[in-house]
Amino acid sequence: MDNTSSLAAARIVMGAAAWLAPENRLWSATMGSPTPSYSMRLFGAREVALGAMTLMAGPSVRPTLLKVGVAVDSADAAASLLATRSGSLDKVRGALLTAMAVAGVGTGVAGLQQG
Known about the structure:
Layout: H1 3-20, H2 25-31, H3 37-56, H4 62-86, H5 91-114
């Protein structure tokens, strides 16, 4: 499986899990406790949509969707850093969330370089 398909599949799995089980302890461990169900479901829907669109897209459209994903993950990384800086997230959760977002950026960039 190439980087693009792997990233898309990961988005779908993570998004579906967040939407279906927004109160799961995994989310509480990373996002803080308690995690609002509404926010987690928004996140989940976004991830499923980005992943599904990327998997279903033809080769000419995939680079555009990868760029959208890189932009979204970059915004997520910035949001994590800002929340950590303001004290809304503790340093451990902030570092974990930032690392997850940066990994998404890296995987998206790798997918773009694969062509």
